Queue: 2 jobs
Job 1
Amino acid sequence: MILALDLRKSFGKRRVLTGLTLEVQPGAVTLVVGANGAGKTTALRLIAGLSRPDAGTVSIAGRDLARQRRDALAMLSFLPQAPRFHPRLTVRQTTEFYARLRGRPLAQVPVALDEWGVREFEDVPTGKLSGGLRQRLALAIFALPDAPVLLLDEPGLSLDPVWRERLQQFLHKQAARGRTVLVATHLLGEWEGRVDRCLLVEEGRVSGELPPDRLRESFPELGGTEFSRARLQTCA
Amino acid sequence: MNSAVAIPAFADVAGAALRREWVSHRLNRFLHAHLLLILAAGLLPLLTPDGGLASGAAWWLLHAVLYAVSLSALLLGLSSAHAESEEFVWLLGQPAGIGPWLAGKVFGLIALAGGSALLLGLPVTLMGGGSGALLLAAIGAAEVASLCALIGLAIGFWVRDSVRGLIAAIAMWLLLLFGVDLLLLATAGAPWVQQNPDLWVAALMFNPLDAYRVTILFAVENSAFGSLQAGRLTAWWIAHAGLWLGLATLTGGVLAWVASWCGARRRLDG
Amino acid sequence: MKFPLNLLSGLLGTTIVFGGSAGDDLRARLAGATPGERIVVQPGVYEGPFTIEKPVHLLGEPGAILQGDHQTYIIAVRSADVEIAGFTLRGSGRALGKDDAAIHITGARAIIRDNRILDSLHGIYVRRADDCRIAENTIIGDGISSDRVADPTLSPLKPGEAELCDVDSLQDRRGNGIHLWNSRGHVIEGNHIEGTRDGIYFSFADATMVRRNTIVQVRYGLHYMYSDDNTFEENTFSGNGAGSALMYSKGIVLRRNRFHANRSHRAYGILFQSVDNTIVEGNEIDGNTLGFYLENSNDVVVRDNRIVRNYVGLRVSDSTSGSTFVGNRFSGNVHAVETTGFNQANRWSAEGRGNYWEGALSLDLNRDGVGDVPHRESDLFGQWRRTFPEIGLLSAAPGERLLRFVHSRIALPGVPGITDPHPLLATKDTP
């Protein structure tokens, strides 16, 4: 489970998070949506421990991120937006490195590469991979730790429809195993009717939830900077 | 379920980072340039005329380290930092944290930059010109090259843009190579400096390139320091130049390590 | 009786003496010799001391050893025209005040050749005897001791016999390889001197030719004063604690010698103190702490020398004047030239030729091998050496090199140093 309470974060004079609170339960796939600049990525970076909040707390699977950082991060696997890798290292070298960093047996590396369709490129330097292959490599690395909490920032970008479908299947499978899954995305159409819960982030805080089966209808202009608040189905 | 998630030990992560550093640099053009420079510099003493192989080798090494190896090691460290820039968001979110990863990276760089600098003395040794003095010169070169690589690493973590990072690294090298000397030369005549010569000397001592130069001149080449009337700090330095070089580069290395750590942590809020 | 004994000893290859020692026998032969006689000494140990008071040729066969009693000289030459050759001599006395030596000469025209001298105070001491020839001897002292070597420019060397009584310590009771005092006209050639106190000591010794000697691992390779009109050719002075010091003399020629690796904190390749009308040419001054130092020396011609790889190549005090430096090669020195001012009383070129300076601008439009622009060799530390000795720590610093480079292209005002109006370009003829 992910519990974020009253997260606040500013960059200079720009206030990005203004008191974001969310609770994500295990056993479900939860979506976070919002306009560009609404604070989704910043919220995910705070939850992933990549950035420190000015105020507020984050708890991952019951571990306080500030006080039990190592334990909290051990519970988490984070897929950043548009991931890139050390360009001179091959697919296998990169994956093996992260397997070591997460204490995973190296025998799982070919399995993960197989699962995400990049094993045949295992000797290719990551700098020479296409965007889609790089994203699938990132997913292989993301899946390696088998962590209880999965955090993904725009995971479907660069993937073709087949792999986007497989990604959704993978995440539902993880949710069915009791994992906590939180996905930030713009691709509402892909997820409509295939998500358990959808949180709307607006102006630095969670302002409500969208009906999982009517995401596009709720946000016909999503991707722009304007929202039609009238179409929102508020949490309250 | 939760308790099944393991956090790898410090040594395991550091070892993985060290291994990665080694593997990634095999294709690094900065390392290739560094090794070529070392090869060329190591062969140059063989061209010393009149059988001056043994006596001239350390002098060649000094110039190679001052004008070439120091810069290439600095750029090696810079490239090492910049090569990770794409991956920071992965690396920093690992439960083991930055510390062990950075430790592995630091030791990997030391092994690469320092180990390759040791090779400076190899051609002369193979040609029968090996000596204790040459060994001391080569060890000093390894210490300086390691420190320069760590300084480059720190610069790379702090100045993330590759072009700006390159400019910053070259500026740092010019500062170490010429800036400190010129500043000290300019202030040497000042009455306050002449009344407090040890402060002036201390500033010189902490510049690794000057510490190496003084070691080669006065400890390896045994050039007589022309001014025996100099102060106690100078006398101690001249008498223990090799020891001081080790201490200075160790101190500098630790500081560069800390600076690298701060620079890498700074990424968290970037 | 004597005939069968000689026959037996000849058969056995050694000396057999019944009733007296071999030394007594040799002393008897010396006493009974006629002037000009050749006395051939067979292999064996002959206990000294011996005194030669007739002009004889004392010739040792290989293995003939003259053994001193550690009380006085081993062999004293008191007659003119004596030759001593082919011996190993060992065990002289060690009293500096008594001039103890392996061979002590007061007779003129002595020839001392092909001997090997060990375990002695002085090796060969010549006192008021002219025209000696000392050749092809090997003199081995007790080992180098460069500790506490005084700087001759700060505490000048003392002439005369008493100088050596001022020993630094009991451990330093060593004499000189060859000690010449108050005499002239010698030829000293082909000797090897190692580990003595000083290599060759000159005091009031004139008109002497010194050539092809090798002097290594001593205190002063050449300890020289008040001696005029001497010539040194093709000698090697290497690895000596304080190098070679020549003082208060004139009319010397130093030609094609090698002054190499004299590197203690007070070592000079060559030191001239008050040396006038002297020629220094074709020498190699290589790898010394201070290659060549001229103090208060006038009308010295320094030409075609290689002054290379020294900490300081050349130091010329402003008290030196009328000297000419031409055709020399300066390369690989940490400081090529040190001077206390602008050194305008000396000449740095003659007849349109200067010196070769490593790193000088090689602009030669008319291709005559002479640079078209003057070369300025600066000494940035000059004014601070006395007031701020720590400045020496910037030796060979890149910043200092950079400034020096700039100064060699653009004259910076007020920087001490010398100007060579006709710098040479490197050619195959550059020394």
Job 2
Amino acid sequence: MINMRKLLLVLFVSTFVLSACWDWTRKPVSTYKKVWGYKPVFTQDTTFLKVQSEAPRQMRNPGKIYVRGNLIFQNDIGYGIHIIDNSTPSQARPVGFIKVNGSSEISITGNNMYVNSFTTLVVLDISDWQNVRVVKRIADAFKQGINAGYYQYYYIPPPVHGVYYDCSLTGYRPGMLQSGWVQDSVYNMCFFK
Amino acid sequence: MKQFRSSILLSLLGFCIAACSKEGGSADVSNNSSTGTGGSLARFTIAANHLYLADYSTVEVYDISDAANPVNKGSINAGFGVETIFPYEDKLFIGSMNGMFIYSIADPDNPVKLGEARHVRSCDPVVASGTTAYVTLRGTACGPATDGLYIYDITNIMAPVLKKILALSTPSGLGIKDSVVFVCRGNSGLTLVNVKNPSSPQPMYTVSGNNFNDVIPYGNLLICYVSTGLLIYDISNLNQIVKVGAVNY
């Protein structure tokens, strides 16, 4: 019973907050029931945290933007950062990608980029952006929401739009990372529009 | 062994580069030229050699004078659901779900709250210019607020005064250049608003055809985060901005 109440609280608060700014929507339904949707998969495999420069790739979930000089950076929510050469705006084109799983935010000064990776703050040396180097990781820099039992513990959006997803903490334990999604029967509480 | 030695050399080299660039940085509170520019929806910002990070109900403060070793200097308690941080002059404008908070970072280690404007629960990115702050409130998923561009007089920073609400549906990120505010409105497009007289904002026109989330005015360019990726507009003529580029991922 306590678990159920906790689950409902987490469901409510997390969906509310996620929907607020991540374009994830809570569907106004009067009765919750199970439907076919997506359930998050959690892992303890830390190789999932590896950060590296890669060739340009397809954008999956367009995210926040950041500009410095002739380069534009755009986050691919959950996956990393696309680098766009904007030296000729009419020919702006992707020139590289920095893989950072669990990312959504970027800030840059000097040779360094600061980016989140799940609950870790990662400092990268991007002086050679085709060969970025991790110079520091600060674990649990963003643990507050998770410790409180709500907020963004999903960092990778569902693979397709227009689906329900499980927004409870089922299967999550502290220290785990979300590695992806799997199709399953879930409550029709959270909807990825 | 050889590899080990070369990695030492590399790290020494890295250290030198870091040291040099640090020397070049100014103690000035405004962003130095090597710091980039984020959008109004940003939850990270860098000002005065400090990194400010939104983490749910607080903003964490890190001294990054030594870039490779951020030092946590404590945190600002900024209400419920901090969503955006916008640096302006020696201040931070923090948009949380229940209001706009203005902090002085004259002492970057110890931000001091100057003023706040509470409002009904909402999403609310902020930008500022001169003695005016511009906030978009969106009442859909976030809370019951009336959608629109909220304009605050911050002449007295301790007590922001709401001057005007310009009703605009589904507003999101925003940006300002000269006396024009760009308001992203999702599928409703990008609306330009003349704020020469902030008490009497005049909508100019709306660029439609894309789902606009956020913008960064950058010199004569406007970098737009749209649902499909990225668009670039030439904004040298604010009466008629022109799309010059689109990134196809």
